[in-house]
Amino acid sequence: VVTGLIVARILRLQVDAFRERITSEVMTGTKVFVMPGGMMKSNGSLVDLIEKVKPEIRTLIEKCNTVKMWVQLLIPRIEDGNNFGVSIQEETVAELRTVEGEAASYLDQISRYYITRAKLVSKIAKYPHVEDYRRTVTEIDEKEYISLKIIVSELRNQYVTLHDMILKNIEKIKRPRSSNTDALY
């Protein structure tokens, strides 16, 4: 009986020593500071820029949509004969559609930036010891800044191009077919 108690006590001491060793190894492992405060914040400068650029993109989309509808409503019914003005109208509508689509793609690009950055930040949380993930966040932010500069330039270029196209062809857009029937004979 005494021998059984001694064996049980030795086993209990061994188990307790094992638990203590495992617990101390877990607690004294390599310290990893993932994100102070528990959250990695967005790049404030980029968020401010994005919040300024997005309304400009939306405005371009809305204006293109309005002008496109105006030109489409001016297109006369299909007839034989003088359709040069109608082709100018159709070309204008096509250009407006293209600009509208490109502007919408800029909004998608901004959304993709946030999604890509979020995935990367979650990888940083999962693998905090990999420095390349942290550097990639900076690279993505720099790339987005350059993309925003390009987007703003493109918005300007699209406004200028549309203005030039419409201004040069305003008479054909308003009246695609001349009412001067004497010139035909």
CATH top-level class of the largest domain: Mainly Alpha
Number of beta-strand segments: 0
* Overall number of structural domains: 2
**Which percent band covers the strand fraction?**
under 5%
Distance between the termini: 130 Å
From the alpha-carbon coordinates, what is the Rg to the nearest angstrom?
Answer: 33 Å
Helical content class: over 70%
Query: How would you sum up the global shape?
Result: rod-shaped
Q: Major sheet: size, sense and barrel closure?
A: none
Helix and strand content put the structural class at mainly alpha
Low-confidence stretches: 26-32, 181-185
What's the tally of helices? 5
Structural summary, described in words:
The model is unreliable at 26-32 and 181-185 (pLDDT under 50). This protein has two domains: 1-31; 32-178, Up-down Bundle (Four Helix Bundle (Hemerythrin (Met), subunit A)), CATH 1.20.120.180. By secondary structure, the protein is mainly alpha-helical. It starts with a helix and ends in an 11-residue tail after the last helix. The radius of gyration is 33 Å and the shape is rod-shaped. It contains five helices and no strands. Helix content is 77%, strand content 0%. InterPro entries: PA28_C (IPR003186), PA28_C_sf (IPR036997), Proteasome_activ_PA28 (IPR009077), Proteasome_activ_sf (IPR036252).
Task: Please write out the topology.
Blueprint: H1 2-27, H2 44-74, H3 84-126, H4 131-168, H5 170-174
Helix pairs in contact: 2-3, 2-4, 3-4
